[in-house]
Design a protein that fits this description.
Helix 4 runs parallel beside helix 6. The chain has helices spanning about 5-20, 25-35, 40-50, 55-70, 80-85, 95-120. It is mainly alpha-helical.
């Protein structure tokens, strides 16, 4: 699936999760989005959602997914990925300010913790 189609699909799943009246459709969307969050490729897809996405739901998904990746106790992100997140500046017009602030703050804290552990 090309990048643009993936962004559209993720936005549709987020809309289904938050707006659908059908409990079965919401459950299927949730299942697909949890699978997305646990995917090794989720970081790049989250950045594409933040850059190209139009849905506040999808952008919230992206920021919370990145925050979870940073916050996991197991090191799922290498140092280069953590630096990329810290330096990344998405189009934040639609992203809730609190979610983007938490994401950036955790990236900086995580990076600092990584360096402190390395220096010891």
């Amino acid at each position: 699936m090309d990048e643009e189609s993936e962004v559209i699909r993720l936005e549709a799943l987020c809309k289904e999760l938050y707006e659908s009246q059908d409990a079965g459709a919401r459950a299927e969307a949730e299942k697909a989005l949890v699978s997305f969050q646990n995917s090794p490729e989720s970081l790049g897809k989250c950045q594409r959602l933040l850059d190209r996405g139009n849905s506040p739901y999808a952008q919230l998904l992206a920021t919370t997914t990145i925050t979870k990746l940073i916050s996991r106790s197991t090191q799922t992100l290498n140092l280069g990925q953590r630096i990329d997140i810290r330096n990344y500046r998405p189009h934040l017009s639609l992203v809730p300010a609190q979610a983007s602030t938490v994401c950036c703050a955790r990236a900086g804290h995580s990076l600092l913790s990584h360096h402190q552990a390395w220096l010891v």
